[in-house]
Design a protein that fits this description.
Elements lengths: L16 E3 L16 H11 L10 H13 L4 E5 L6 E7 L8 E7 L18 E3 L2 E3 L3 H13 L1 H7 L5 E6 L8 H12 L3 E6 L7 E5 L1 E10 L3 E2 L9 H22 L12 E9 L5 E2 L2 E10 L5 H23 L4 E10 L2 E2 L5 H10 L4 E4 L5 H6 L4 E3 L14 E3 H19 L2
Parallel strand pairs: 4-7, 4-8, 8-18, 9-17
Antiparallel strand pairs: 1-17, 2-3, 3-7, 5-6, 6-19, 9-16, 10-14, 10-15, 11-13, 12-14
Helix pairs in contact: 1-3, 3-10, 6-7
Bound molecules: zinc ion.
Zinc ion binds next to helix 3.
């Protein structure tokens, strides 16, 4: 495997800003090998091609059958079109109302299209302490370790329940888990903690930025390009709006507000897609572009959106409408992932530290489902095996040591939930 294009593992923690001292985890050699059960389950889950655009039902069926063999009933919460599903299951907690712990993971993965993989992405390959395959870090290994430990959970008969919450469509805007959370809220599910197992290299993550995105469609008016004075150029109006977004981005970069625990430490603004016009000698009728704000907890994305909308209404629309009354801007929200902002002294953080042996917490730049759980009052942290540096890339991998650390964390959790 070496020498044929594999990148060596990146330095850990480049994208995870940590508060406090680093824990000395991963140095205990006895901890570095995961169980055969975890390895086999990772291999099994990776083999399901659950790219977000496709169904995840084969994987969900497999998990439901597996759980039922261990006497655990699953609740399936399907997507609107029935092509995909969330799965929710509870181990223990019988006869009591003690709030338990939710272990949350998504089952979908990003596409491998056009990526130069050196191995078959849906067949795991283990080399030099690393397991390669799409979704090994993001985030089927966490889901697999949870499942591999189900027999231990069942045997421990935890008085405080352990809930498994597996979602779909996380990679396309955290869509699936919203339906699951709705069901849990209606039922009045209480939990002392929710652990979202996205890859943090087993660090306890208490915060990430929120993200909100929109599509703007500019409606202009066509004319021959020799007669620009008769047309309303949709591409130019879009370009002026994108330039305004860029000036907002510079303003945040240069003036803050700043929170140095994030990378970058300010709210970022970005336009990622633009389409418009048909050919050079036609004044374009239509142009659309997609943009997003990745905001600090203190910045309100709706206020930023209002600012850009107000700019177009003040600076661009009057001139456009003076020529053609049917021109203007149309806005559509694409996605909203709330930020995660868990207090350092929340008991969920104490639990996360106890389970991992860490004495530090961190924040990450990427969005997760954690903000959605927190939004409905569930105390939430992000903590899972693997590194986000490997996520979404060709030759994605996870270190065996990370899998072993995840196993150790969940074993401590099982003990805790069984005790008292
Ligand atoms: Zn993920």
């Amino acid at each position: 495997m070496r020498g044929i294009g594999f990148r060596p593992p990146a330095e850990p923690g480049i994208l995870t800003k940590i508060n406090g001292n680093q824990p000395a985890i991963g140095t205990d050699r006895s901890m570095t090998q995961p169980s055969a059960a975890s390895r086999a389950m990772i291999e099994r889950l990776i083999a399901f091609d659950t790219t977000s655009r496709d169904s995840n039902l084969a994987l969900i069926d497999f998990v439901r059958d597996y759980l039922s063999r261990h006497g655990i009933a699953s609740e399936i919460v399907p997507s609107e079109d029935g092509r995909k599903a969330n799965l929710f299951a509870t181990v223990g907690g019988k006869g009591g109302e003690a709030p338990g712990v939710i272990l949350s993971g998504h089952t979908d993965v990003v596409p491998v299209d056009g990526q130069p993989w050196d191995t078959e992405p849906f067949t795991v390959v283990e080399r030099d302490g690393l397991i390669y395959g799409r979704g090994t870090s993001d985030m089927k290994s966490f889901v697999a370790v949870c499942l591999a430990l189900v027999p231990d959970m069942v045997k421990a008969r935890p008085r405080q329940p352990i809930h498994l919450a597996f979602s779909y469509d996380e990679e396309v805007g955290c869509l699936g888990v919203r339906r699951l959370i709705d069901v849990l809220v209606k039922r009045g599910l209480k939990a002392q903690a929710c652990i979202v197992g996205e890859p943090t290299e087993m660090r306890v993550v208490v915060g990430h930025k929120g993200k909100k995105s929109w599509r703007c469609t500019v409606h202009g008016h066509e004319s021959h390009s020799a007669l620009t004075h008769l047309g309303v150029n949709a591409v130019e109006a879009a370009a002026e709006t994108v330039a305004k977004l860029k000036s907002m981005a510079r303003h945040f970069r240069d003036n803050g507000p700043y929170d140095e625990t994030y990378e970058p430490p300010y709210t970022s603004v970005h336009t990622g897609v633009i389409r418009g016009g048909t050919q050079l000698n036609i004044v374009p009728l239509r142009c659309e572009f997609d943009f997003e704000f990745r905001h600090l907890p203190g910045d309100d994305p709706d206020a930023l959106f209002a600012e850009i909308k107000e700019f177009t209404e003040r600076e661009l629309v009057p001139e456009m409408r003076a020529k053609q009354p049917k021109t203007g801007f149309e806005w559509r929200e694409l996605s909203h992932i709330p930020g995660l902002n868990t207090s350092e002294d929340d008991p969920v953080v104490t639990l996360g530290k106890a389970l991992t042996g860490a004495n530090a917490t961190g924040k990450v730049p990427f969005g997760t489902e954690a903000g959605l759980f927190q939004q409905v009052g569930l105390p939430t942290i992000v903590c899972g095996p693997g590194s986000i540096e490997q996520a979404h890339k060709p030759n994605e991998f996870i270190a065996l040591d990370q899998v072993a650390q995840c196993e150790a964390m969940l074993r401590r959790l099982i003990q805790r939930m069984a005790a008292s």
